[in-house]
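Quick bug: ABC-2 type transport system ATP-binding protein output formatted oddly.
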Amino acid sequence: MFMQVERLTKAYRNITVVNNLSFNLDKGKCAALLGPNGAGKTTTLHMIAGLTAPNKGKISFEDKQHQDVRSFIGFLPQHPTFFNWMTPQQYLTFLGLLSNISKNVLSQRIDEVLETVGLKGKEKQKIAGFSGGMKQRLGLAQALLHKPELLILDEPVSALDPEGRKDVLMIIETLKKDTTILFSTHILHDAEQICDNIIMIKNGRMKWNGTKSSLRQEFTAPAFTIETEERLPASLSSLPSEQVLFHSPYKATVGVKDTSQQQQLLQLLVDQQANLVLFERKQHSLEDVYLEVMNK
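Here's what came back:
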């Protein structure tokens, strides 16, 4: 177990924004922290990164009980700040020296991270002329500069256009091979695309913590989308409202508990001599599951 968060709590005056939060993160995994606005995602990441002290609880790391955790954590805030009059090379040199990276190593390391994030060849351009996507790449570069064991990203693609999002997600996908990653996002498709584990919080409290596959197994019952040439059999209307959702007189989604119910559904359609246009198992997205968990 690489990181353990135990009963983490943070309050500002009389408002508790993180409430008794506990979860683990294994080394080499990528976990997504999901939740609505105001759920406590940013505060949680700030506490893990050592930028904010919790009121209660603790965060522990494997074999690092008495070390300053900030030395092996890379952090990209939701709204990174840059000195626009600097070039990427100047900016990363400045931050590298603040991080006590030796000058002998720093120059080579800057070249490496700029190549990793796709900014090689732009190291002497002014940051002021960078697009939002390029600035986000530079933010990733600074987070990677000291070779962190844990990379924390707060809404890394939320302000980017589709092309910029795609580029940054591809970089994160590459980084997964060598670094443990924890990132927050409200773009569920991005989490579904690149993460191994899902952590869902609401009002500062844990709603779900586990793998993507276990999340789907627990919260999504099998369902089939049915479409016929004529009106659907009237017998479908007798099913409980939570089991069948009618999209039109000719199309519906029907939930089943097991294989036997699936066979019964198909037999019902055969007995009614329904002319099937579609009989397809519904693929539940992370968004479907997220809404079910949050409303539970």
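Actually, after a second look the formatting is fine. Residues 1-215 form a domain with the Rossmann fold fold (CATH 3.40.50.300). Closing.
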